[in-house]
Amino acid sequence: MQTLTKKYAEELRRKEDTFRKATKTRKNTIITMITTYGLQENSHSLKLVANDLKMDVLFE
User: Fold this and answer.
1) Under a CB-based contact definition with an 8 Å cutoff, are residues 12 and 30 in contact?
2) SS3 of 18-50
3) Residue 28 has pLDDT above 90, yes or no
4) What pTM does this model have?
5) CB 19 within 8 A of CB 29
């Protein structure tokens, strides 16, 4: 399982902020993680990630 660290969560927030500024969107953005074996839930992933998809859903 993948773990979302504090450092990577901060990086994702920065990327989301950069995207919003570059596109000048006021709409909501949703962070979705596509991982091989899933995302381990922790305080960072629960606050930031809306959807967690395992890779096998791409091949159904």
Assistant:
1) no
2) HHHHHHCCCCCCCCEEEECCCEECCHHHHHHCC
3) yes
4) 0.83
5) yes
